[in-house]
Amino acid sequence: TASAESPVGTFSLVVVSNRLPVDHEDGPEAPDGTATDVWRTSPGGLVTALEPLMRSSGGAWVGWPGVADRSFEPFTNDGINIVPVRLSAEELEEYYEGFSNDTLWPLYHDVIAAPAFHRETWEAYVTVNKRFAAAAAASAALGATVWVHDYQLQLVPRMLREARPDLVIGFFNHIPFPPYGIYAQLPWRKQILHGLLGADVIGFQRLADAGNFSRAVRRLYGYPTRGVVIDVPTSEGQGRSGATRRVIAKHFPISIDAVAYEEMARRPEIQARARQIREDLGNPKTLMLGVDRLDYTKGIGHRIKAFGELLADKRLNVEDVTLVQVASPSRERVETYKALRDEIELAVGRLNGDFSTISHTAISYHHHGYPREEMVALYLAADVMLVTALRDGMNLVAKEYVAVRFDGDGVLVLSEFAGAADELKQAILINPHDIEGTKDAIERAVVMPKRERTRRMRALRKKVFDNDVAAWSASFLRTLTGGAAVQAGIPQS
Ligand code: F6P
């Protein structure tokens, strides 16, 4: 039953994520002088992954509309029911830029950058998580399924369970979950685990992430774990050898709508655009591509270093090879990201200064986000795709590249530290910290014979099409609703 004080909503599926699939922008002034609203697709893999499910399910999507201090009534955008959550400028600074992206993000990505630990930003994280939990509770019908997403909202599952024990609650972590030795640094490590354990199913990208989580639960709470099952004492059972709830912690590697990407790639105007891109770049023999949010986890600097050395060593020639690097703006108010931008742009400028000629630019660098159509044209145009992340939950760019290459051509160079490497084994796998190894891999990709390219791409495509995003969400939701039914004593067919 729902507790008496919490309102009950109408949606039988509610998705909760920090960012909505659309960000608000002020549109042009209407003739009567009032401001108009423009909604643009927001960045990141989470949105790409969840959009198809939300369009087909008629559920509600609870999240932040991308701007501070603005309230918006729920609305429908492109077939998706949107429930905006208001955040103040101060909350954004402390909860989003601070605790989420200056503490949890670097901590969960192997401390590539140093995480900051501040008590005030933790307080803001708790406050904002409460607001998201309340908004989700107010949208969810009795007995509804609520699916909470990502590291910004790890306290929401517990808060929801306390407010609405009638709900079936899932959580999916889109980023890595760190090994215990790193996780243990977090001053609020027990509170975060307690928050997550409010869910019935906790999903991770990789087997190793789920293992790290279960290990942290054993070390910090001593709860018994058997495979993917964790027995969590209910509040009544606390301290006694009494009642427990079954929580499942398991990996569900996320994916993309592969068919939609291929369909886009088959459009004549997108193929024409791909040809145009190559032509505009002076028709290089080999076009290499990097596509990332401008984030220190992505190994953009390592990639540029390897490319620069290949040019310096004359193993590659600027007349033959161009690297297009799309670095979409991200978290620009966080200091580490500001510093990274300076570092990358300095490296790009130096490399171009050293190696570009009047007719051939070594790196064509773009600090922009582009519409999906343009990304697909770039993927089609690229002979070699470079994914050199130092740590990445999944990396959907790798899967998008594969889905687009219906021509069976193109070579994917993929970091073993991206979740995608667990599945995409026929890529050229690299350790991006090993610059020599990365250079060898890039050179190998450039000279790879057509037969080998085709053989590898065929195998990669099978993986991506067999395990698309519909299979991902169906598998998670099946585990979630099946698990809840077991909990409630409902027999499974
Ligand atoms: O999956 C990681 C993630 O942080 C998502 O939660 C997020 O929406 C996306 O990357 C983009 O980051 P941000 O929302 O901070 O711009």
Topology:
Blueprint: E1 11-19, E2 22-26, E3 37-41, H1 45-57, E4 60-64, E5 75-77, E6 80-84, H2 89-108, H3 119-139, E7 140-149, H4 156-163, E8 168-172, H5 180-183, H6 189-196, E9 201-204, H7 207-221, E10 225-226, E11 229-233, E12 244-251, H8 258-266, H9 268-280, E13 286-293, H10 300-312, E14 321-328, H11 335-355, E15 363-366, H12 372-381, E16 384-387, H13 396-404, E17 411-415, E18 428-430, H14 435-447, H15 450-466, H16 469-487
The structure holds 6-O-phosphono-beta-D-fructofuranose (F6P).
Notes on the structure:
This protein is of the alpha/beta class and 493 residues long. The protein contains 16 helices and 18 strands. The strands form three sheets. Strands 5-6-4-1-7-8-9-12-11-10 form a ten-stranded mixed sheet, sandwiched between helices. A six-stranded parallel sheet has the order 15-14-13-16-17-18, with helices on both faces. Strand 13, helix 10 (300-312) and strand 14 form a beta-alpha-beta unit. Helix 8 crosses helix 13 (396-404) and helix 10 crosses helix 14 (435-447). The two termini are 25 Å apart. Residues 485-493 have low confidence and may be disordered. 6-O-phosphono-beta-D-fructofuranose binds at residues 18-19, 43-46, 150, 174-175, 330-331, 393.
